[in-house]
Amino acid sequence: MKVRHNKGGGDDKIELQMTPMIDIVFQLLVFFIMTFKIVSQEGDFNIKMPLAAPAAGAPDDLQLPPMKVRLRAGGGGVLAGMSLNDKGVGTMEALRLEIIGVVGDDRGPGSIQETAEVELDCDYGLRYEHVIQAITAVSGYIDDTGNVVKLVEKIKFAPPRQASGE
């Protein structure tokens, strides 16, 4: 039996064609750029989350003191009670009317809505949908003519507390 030796085996080089690869990368890039749609963020609220140690500053004379909305959770996370500045409020619509009574529905620059601030104090077990309903009630409404009336833009949260630990 004769053994064959391949003399040209070490000289064969495989060369990668880079031009088609670069073409594909550019085609993918163009595709994603052309199909990208910029959408405004849904539910964009101006919300201040509580810090570990809130700093106390001197309040501005023109600024209203923060309104405190307390949301109490019942069994299963349902809304058991609600109050605005320690005054009981029955429904979200009543909460909205109380906020309108404090800040008014006057529009325009320099209005009190720019300085008004609401602090939401929610029980830990409260369902998220009730928190969103409260944010919706204090932030504004749509009037009879279809215009958006802004009430309070500055909303912050108090540190969460347990429902039974009050």
Structure description:
The protein has 166 residues and is of the alpha/beta class. It has a domain at 64-157: 2-Layer Sandwich (Nucleotidyltransferase, domain 5). Helix content is 25%, strand content 20%. It has a 6-stranded mixed β-sheet with strand order 1-8-5-2-3-4, with helices on one face. Strands 6-7 form a two-stranded antiparallel sheet. α2 packs parallel to α3 (128-139). It is elongated, with a radius of gyration of 30 Å.
Describe the SSE topology:
Layout: H1 18-35, E1 47-48, E2 67-73, E3 79-84, E4 87-89, H2 92-103, E5 117-122, H3 128-139, E6 140-142, E7 148-150, E8 154-157
Parallel strand pairs: 1-8, 2-5, 5-8
Antiparallel strand pairs: 2-3, 3-4, 6-7
Outline of the structure:
With 166 residues, this protein is an alpha/beta fold.
Regarding CATH, which class of the domain at 64-157?
Answer: Alpha Beta
Bin the helical content.
25-40%
**Which class do the helix and strand fractions yield?**
alpha/beta
Whole-angstrom Rg: 30 Å
Would you count the extended β strands for me?
8
Order of helices and strands: HEEEEHEHEEE
Provide the descriptors you would attach to this structure in a database record.
166 residues, alpha/beta, Nucleotidyltransferase, domain 5, elongated
